[in-house]
Amino acid sequence: MNKNKKTHNNEEKIKKSNHQTEEVKKDQDCGCQDNKKDNASQEESKNNQPEKFSKEDCDGCDKKKDEQSSFNSHDKDNSSSKDEKDLQAELLQLKTELINEKLKSQADLENLKKRLQKEKVADVKYASMNLITDMLVPLEQLGQVLEMPNEDEMLQKFLFGFKMINKQINDVLEKDGVAEIKALGEKFDPKYHHALEKISDEKQPNGVNVAVLQKGFLYKDKIIKPAMVKINEWSENKNGENK
Question: Does domain 86-176 bear CATH number 3.30.70?
Fold first, then answer.
């Protein structure tokens, strides 16, 4: 019996001891948790509190901001100045091009006016050229008929009247600017003479027109009909023979 009581008492003591140990652990756990909560609360409070800067720190920040602002402003001024110079250069180039175009247009207009004026003067000056050109061939044929020899006195008197009319027509043409091209006995000039025939006669001058087959005419300063001629042309070789 005594042994059983002792055993029972020992078990009771062990239970109490274990119970006390568990309560101590709980108290410690609660204390740690409270400490953790307090530490977290303090950290959160620190984070929520605004940072405190000294006056020197603020002055330094303001100075840096002013320097940065001044630097940015300087860059903007330089960029703006460069853009303005580029714009002025483009405007100057455009102005120069417009002036050149204007001068060119004015020059073209003046040249056009001069050309039109020149053509107008030429049209007035040579207004009768086509009519005169058409008249020359029948007038030349009439002159050739009137120069034919004729022994009939009645016909000669009749032709004399036509010669007078032919002379009057030629005088009118000459007054208007028509002139016969000199060809007979003249040095051959391809500008005024066309050679239809050619002979080689040493007794006559070399390269000279010896006959006029058809008369040539000038109208003022223009050739309206070259003279058709026979030309004498010969040359000597080294032995003095004609070639």
Answer: no
Residue 211 belongs to what H/E stretch?
A: strand 208-214
Inter-CA distances, 183 with 124, 208, 229, Å:
29, 9, 7
| Domain assignments of the chain as residue spans, ordered by start | 86-176, 178-235
Instruction: Look up residue 47 and give its two tokens.
Output: 């984070």
Kind of pairing, strands 208-214 and 217-219? unpaired
- Rama region for 69: left / alpha / beta (φ>0; ψ in -120 to 50; rest): alpha
When the pLDDT of each residue in the chain is averaged and rounded to a whole number, the result is 77
What mean pLDDT comes out for the span 8-14?
59
* Residue 220 falls in which region: left (phi positive, over 0), alpha (psi -120 to 50) or beta: left
pLDDT in tens, 143-192: 888 888 888 888 888 888 899 999 999 999 999 899 999 999 999 999 99
Q: Please say whether the beta carbons of 217 and 241 come within 8 A.
A: no
The predicted pLDDT at position 237 comes to 61
- Contact residues for 108 (Cβ-Cβ < 8 A; gap 6+): none
Amino acid in position 17: S
Give yes or no for a contact between 229 and 193, defined as CB atoms under 8 angstroms apart: yes
Dihedral over Cα of 188, 190, 193, 195: its sign = positive
Domain 178-235 fold: Nucleotide Exchange Factor Grpe; Chain A, domain 2 (2.30.22)
